[in-house]
């Protein structure tokens, strides 16, 4: 997508995705993305401004800010996931990932020269050695494993007690998504899976993941939790699930989908 650093006029109007160290500026009243003229936004000394898309015929701008003021106005993109229509989280995910990309590619990783934003595509280019970088996207697999009327759920050290989700892991270099799913499940809980089927995907800007979801059937093995990674894991009956992720997340949607399929098949 076309994107470039802009000089704005005071009256330029649009949606403003102002990102400051991974956090977004939201309106105080409704916790939504600010809309209006540039001059109303009161952003002190923005580092970079890019056009990142359109929503309902209005331009969407990313403003990279280093403003240290008004800490109470900055929110995680997750706030939008749970409070608004999906489109706002999707746009915010894009803005946050691009902001991180721009801020972490000021200098060339190959020769150390200053990099510049390319005018016709979203990339940073070193004019000295020709090294070109695109925004980083880290593919990650989510696997929901079913055994009869049960689902395998686990709690990592990052989760609070009582909260469980499906297994997740990053894809390694040279690996297919399917290989990553089988490997991650075996590494994390010692279980073999079969009948892998793709469900869908979700960009996850913490900081630049792309979640790819799979359903699978249990094949063999007893649960053995990977040390340092999985705090506890077990088979949960669909009628008696613990606290799980919200439906707006891909993992939350997959657990409910499997629950629904199992109850209608029974
Ligand atoms: Zn270079």
- Quaternary form: single chain
SS-based structural class? alpha+beta
Class of the largest domain, according to the CATH hierarchy? Alpha Beta
Tell me about the biggest sheet? Answer: 6 strands, mixed
CATH topology-level fold name of the largest domain: Nucleoside Triphosphate Pyrophosphohydrolase
- Round the mean pLDDT to the nearest integer and report it: 91
- The shape is globular
State the end-to-end CA separation.
Answer: 47 Å
As for the number of domains, it is 2
Describe this structure in words.
Strands 1, 2, 3, 4, 5 and 6 form a six-stranded mixed sheet that branches. Strands 10, 11, 12, 13, 14 and 15 form a six-stranded mixed sheet that branches. The protein has a three-stranded antiparallel sheet with strand order 7-8-9, with no helix packed on it. The N and C termini lie far apart (47 Å). It contains four helices and 15 strands. It has two domains: 13-104, Nucleoside Triphosphate Pyrophosphohydrolase (Alpha-Beta Complex); 138-265, Nucleoside Triphosphate Pyrophosphohydrolase, CATH 3.90.79. The protein has 266 residues and is an alpha+beta fold. The model has no long low-confidence stretch (mean pLDDT 91). The structure holds zinc ion (ZN). Zinc ion binds next to loops.
Walk me through the topology.
Layout: E1 13-20, E2 23-25, E3 35-37, E4 48-55, E5 58-64, E6 74-75, H1 78-83, H2 86-103, E7 116-117, E8 124-125, E9 132-133, E10 138-147, E11 150-156, E12 167-170, H3 177-189, E13 192-204, E14 209-220, E15 230-237, H4 250-265
Parallel strand pairs: 1-5, 10-14
Antiparallel strand pairs: 1-2, 1-3, 2-6, 4-5, 7-8, 8-9, 10-11, 10-12, 11-15, 13-14
The structure holds zinc ion.
């Amino acid at each position: 997508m076309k994107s470039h650093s802009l000089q704005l006029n005071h009256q330029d109007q649009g949606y403003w995705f102002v990102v400051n160290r991974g956090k977004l500026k939201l309106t105080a009243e409704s916790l939504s993305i600010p809309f209006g003229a540039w001059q109303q936004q009161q952003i002190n000394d923005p580092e970079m401004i890019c056009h990142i898309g359109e929503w309902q015929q209005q331009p969407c701008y990313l403003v990279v800010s280093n403003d240290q003021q008004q800490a109470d106005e900055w929110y995680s993109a997750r706030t939008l996931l749970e409070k608004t229509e999906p489109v706002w989280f999707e746009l915010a995910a894009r803005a946050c990932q691009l902001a991180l990309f721009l801020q972490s590619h000021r200098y060339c990783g190959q020769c150390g020269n200053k990099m510049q934003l390319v005018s016709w595509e979203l990339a940073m280019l070193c004019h000295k050695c020709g090294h070109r970088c695109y925004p980083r996207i880290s593919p990650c697999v989510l696997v929901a494993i079913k055994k009869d009327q049960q689902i395998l759920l686990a709690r990592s050290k990052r989760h609070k007690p009582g909260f469980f989700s499906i297994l997740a892991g990053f894809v390694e270099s040279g690996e297919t998504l399917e290989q990553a799913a089988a490997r991650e499940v075996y590494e994390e809980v010692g279980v073999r899976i079969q009948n892998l089927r793709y469900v869908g995907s979700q960009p996850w800007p913490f900081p630049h993941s792309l979640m790819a979801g799979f359903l699978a059937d249990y094949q063999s093995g007893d649960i053995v939790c990977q040390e340092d990674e999985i705090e506890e894991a077990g088979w949960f009956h669909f009628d008696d699930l613990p606290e799980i992720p919200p439906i707006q997340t891909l993992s939350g949607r997959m657990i409910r989908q499997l629950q629904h399929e199992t109850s209608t098949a029974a």
